[in-house]
Fold:
Amino acid sequence: MYKKCIPFLLFLFLLGSCYSNKQGKEEDIDTHPVDLTQLKEKGEITAVTLYSSTSYFQYKMQPMGYEYDLINDFAKSEGLKLNIKVAENATRLIEMLEAGEADVVAYPIQITNKLKQEVLFCGREEQSSQVLVQRANKGDTILTDVTQLIGKDIYVKPNTKYSERLHNLDVELGGGINIKDIEKDTVTTEDLIEMVSKGQIPYTISDDNTARLNKTYYWNININLKVSFMQRSAWAVRKNSPELAKAINEWASDKSGSFTFKAVTKRYFELSKEPFRAELPEVKNGHISPYDQLFRKHAANIGWDWQLLASIAYQESRFNPSVVSWAGAEGLMGIMPNTAKALGVTPHELKNPEIGIRTGVDCLRRFRQGFSSIKDPQEKLKFTLASYNAGIGHVYDAQRLAEKYGKDPNKWDGNVAEYVRLKSDPQYYNDPVCKHGYLRGSETYNYVQEVMQRYKYYKEKTNS
Structure:
């Protein structure tokens, strides 16, 4: 009898030990939170976010985005180095936070009663909804009520949250909305907004933040009609990080008077980002700009025609050496300050036409070296221009996508160019072969096309 009891008593002992150890581990987690104090001891904070046109992306290989700029400002205000991680989707944001892979979710998470039990919401609370995107040219009739959607053609991609909302709204209204599914995989939400602007389709649906950002590219769209209920959202930290939540709340109140939110909001949602779309400038007596001699001088350093440098400069600045873009690119050649700094040039010096052109040529030459496997000079030229506009990492991503989908990774038109354009679609920029995330690819696609077209025009006018 005694011998039979030993295994059972041993089991109880082991079970008690396991419970004790588990309880001890839970107590260790609770009594050793990674809160602001611990982050300051380490000197760094890790934020997780998503790639998108509004939250986080790389432009000319420099990190940007509304959420990125804000969390970067908070980190600086606390004297912390910022580490950024990117989740595959919204669900993973919370999973990575709770697993300790990140200290804060720097992305608007929808506030629900369930999530309130799991995380601490903090920072500025946003209210967002889906909106109708419609054209607002002179003579266009602006819809102001959802009931006016009955009988209208609304274009959306199928199996998306926009399509789902539109079908639900159609049921709510008793039917009558003509929902037009765009079946092409190669069309993105931002493509649809552009198509509305150009009058190619009458209406589409978008998140209001995406719509607000795109309105800075397309002045003639109206995004005032909400087609869904407002949703509250905010950043989030773990339950055991109350100090961090408090610090983010105090920073978000902007009591210091730094007006961070106002400045960042203006940068992304108010400043015009429309590219220069003027007619081809007139060339008289072989004279393109006041800087032709400088273009001739520095073109020799890269072995290109000087007219090509002139075409790039016009695209970047319209030959205005004092211009600063919404993203911070400066001078005749549109150089980012950090890029200039890496080449030993200050932002102030970029306003000097000779230094600006020389620095631009230095950048172009370095990008061209990244495509040594491309032997055709014209192809290499287009890849170099794309890298100058977007950053070479995005072009490498597009090459990998092209190869994956059976296209030629060393040819631009109809091959890599198509996948550069598709890097604004989550299906493509979240592909494992992509290392650099979201890109407003249509901009780079158009950039190469327009610079080459103007270059050809300049050559014809200056050689005749």
Summary: Residues 1-31 have pLDDT under 50 and may be disordered.
